[in-house]
Amino acid sequence: MASALPDLSIRQLEYLVAVADSDTFALAAARVGVSPSALSQGLAELERRVGVPLFDREGRRRVLRPDTRPVLQHARQVVALTADLTGWAQRTRSGDHGRLRLGMIDAAAVQHHGEALRRFRAEHPELRIHLRVAPSGDLLGELVDGSLDLAVCVEPVEPLRGVSTEALLTEDLALYAPDGRRRPGPGAGWGPWVLFPRRANTRTLIEAALRRRGAPVEVVAESHQPEVLCEMVRLGLGWSVLPVVQAESGDRPLEGCGVLARRRLVTARRSGAAPHPAAALLEQALRSPAERPLGATTGIQ
After folding, report:
1. In a domain, 222, yes or no
2. Among residues 209, 225, 224, 226, which one has the least CA distance to residue 262?
3. Torsion over CA: 18, 20, 25, 26 (sign)
4. pLDDT tens digits, 176-224
5. What is the CATH number of the domain that holds 238?
6. pLDDT tens across 115-143, in order?
7. How many domains does the chain have?
8. With the C-alpha atoms ordered 90, 94, 96, 102, is the resulting torsion angle positive or negative?
9. Is 157 helix (H, G, I), strand (E, B) or coil?
């Protein structure tokens, strides 16, 4: 039958390490923040629980016995591992450790918040960030089912059950004509269109704005990727409505012919979920970037 393990406290082991590393009991007691009498009582209890004497007396002083090395080594290891665990817990609570599952639409990940995200990763090197770039609908679905901790996406047209959102920025959606004209003509003269897919939140905003302008919405091609839509415009396949920050950047920018609408990007979280420290820190970083790209403003517009 195996013998029971002694019921040693981490505090008592910390006392033993302090005594070993200090010249006097008074210094050791100060090191661990207790009185010399409390230190002495704790060490006496440690001796009792270990079941072997740990100290010899030299006059009025107590000194560690030479044969207590195994106990001292064990104490050092436990105290060090406990300190590691405490540090890990503190970093986790503060958002400096653990894992953050982040979802972002392409404009947020590349144009709007790429630099802020790079800075955040550099400032939190022990935090494992899993980034997924996808359309807003996909990100919101993954947020609801628990696959993501935080999403940065286009604001849903209707509130989504189980999801809470907070405005992050608004950005311009501009008209782009296949012949490169700069001034918008009457809405009846626009089209056909190459747009985001029908179920996309941005597509819903665009169609509503086009109808307000009296423009027919004849869609001849769809893509979730703005760069593909830009190329379709260059090839003359049709008109499009795109975020200015994506259509008018890069080596081959399109020339816009007027802002048609604006879309709001939001941060999205699961309603009622326990706070995620790293997600909260990242949200702060995203709300205070060094600069804003073309066609974007902060907050609610």
Report:
1. yes
2. 209
3. negative
4. 999 766 566 667 789 899 999 988 999 999 999 999 999 999 999 999 9
5. 3.40.190.290
6. 999 999 999 998 899 999 999 999 998 98
7. 3
8. positive
9. coil
